[in-house]
Amino acid sequence: MSLYGKKELPADERPTVQVTAVTWPMEDTPVGSPPTTGTGASGPRRGRRGLLVTGGVVVALLAATAGTGGYAYAGEVPRGIQVLGAELGGKSRAAATTALQAELDRRAAEFTQPVPVRVADQTVQLDPAAIGLTVDVPATVEAAAAARPDPLRRLFGSHPVDPVVAVDQAKLDAVLRTALGKQARQMTMPGIKFSGTTPKPAYPAPSRDVDAEESARVVRAGWLTGQPITVPLVEKHPATSREEVDRLVAELARPAVAAPVKVTTPAGAVTIAPRTIASSLVFTADKAGKLTHRVDAKKLRTGLAGQLSKIEVEPKNARVLIEGGKPKVVPGTAGRQLDTEALSTALLDVLPKTDGREVSGTLKASEPETTPEEVAKLGIKERVSTFTTKFTGGLSAPRSQNIVTIAKAVDGAVVKPGATFSLNGHTGERSYAKGYRDAPVILDGKLVPGVGGGTSQFTTTLFNATYYAGLEDVEHKPHSYWFSRYPPVIESTIFWPDLDFKFRNNTPYGVVIDTSYTSSSVTVSIWSTRIWDSVKTEWSPRRNITKPRTIYLPPGPSCIATNGIDGFTQDAWRIFRKDGREVRREKFSWTYQAEPRYLCAKQPGT
């Protein structure tokens, strides 16, 4: 049932018009003679008289209407205006607001009843208060004041005005979406991805969901009508169609990986392989489902990494060299780099082609990250720590060569105040291409040949140099077994990419890592400005001693025999002294496993 109602105007508010008949004398009748009746010559005269009488009524009506105009337009709200049965006509806005609010309060129970709304095959009972569904009184009064019923309706009848209904669109949308549940369907975005070098299309599909704005409009319009309310489901189609996806596959994705692309530069040429193209050609859809494509410059550079050394030159930062026992600032040098951003754009014109797959590459200057002025301000003026470990076999041994190679890679590294140094991050993967060789490494509890074996000795040397410089330990891990060439507990291994060594420069001064080596040792010194009087170590006695077991391994070139080492647990305290007193100590603890005694022989009795 509608919530609208009608009221008759009170009798004392109805406008009245009084009409008085007027008699006009005939032109041919003497004054004082009785009026002539009948037909004949006198007929037209009588007709004229009747016309004059009728015209007089109209004139009188118009005069009466004009006379009551002020009455009909009295108040800010025109007379005759009703809202929800409340008489607002002839009232000021304030009085109309009071009258309408009083009517709403009187019928409050009607406006707080749950409102059944159907969405898909679900019916949800909406609580008006929970979704802000209400009559907007100020807006309704303004609508009533703006209404313009015809003048006669103002005088003789009523003019209903619809109330303005408000609803919290966000809250309504949340309730409807909860009711819709799994019946809603998200838009399936179009896309193209590569499996190897084969493009795989993803076809679009429209969403099926409620539309917040439309839902609010329907609920506002239907709330007070007494009629069932059904919120429509809206389908939204992606901007890119299935046919467009197929066209992109046929005209771009498939030819893009059909053959390599040659990139020529003033320093030489590199080749972009189909797999690199596939990994860097990216198709993405925006919120509207519009599919676009681009070449990802970072992915392109990663795919070209093995070739870029032929045409690129790495910039060298300004650095500190130690000459004659003193630090000296040396300017850096600029390098050159392939502009992969520009190349990514240029490739888009070439990839759809089946021939002529060649593009020019631009080499741009690559400036050092650190200037001499910046290095000079770091306050690097003295050696604050140094540490040496010894190795055997001479410089010709593969293990020694690996130690020398990583020492050269780290030599001169500058770590700014607050920065964290990562050994893996600085050297990258230790590979054959970088000069590393096969040497024994610990893998799954035993020594096996592996590229970069021996770099853990350099890691331990660097760790101790930073340890005695008082720098903050961020990440390190001692070896599984203890080797006598290392101090117990305060030593570190490394393995790409899982195990790293990191320290943070927690001083206000810069730090320079200075490395050197001999035929039997490697040394790392830290140069900066001294903060501590001394940094020393105290060890606890060893405990929980375990003995090695004997394991027989199949003889062969990959078998490495060992004598076995005891396992134990031990603590080490790093002690900081300043101004002649101990100011801090840090505890390090580690448990070493007993290294098995590996024999490259057949087990007796088998």
UniProtKB/TrEMBL annotation:
Q: Map out region (Disordered) in residue numbers.
A: 24-47, 191-211
Q: Where is the YoaR-like putative peptidoglycan binding domain?
A: 252-359
Keyword Mitochondrion found: no
Keywords annotated in UniProt: Membrane, Transmembrane, Transmembrane helix
Q: Which organism is it from?
A: Micromonospora echinofusca
Listed Low complexity bias regions: 29-47
Q: What is this protein called?
A: Vanomycin resistance protein VanB
- Ranges that cross the membrane: 51-74
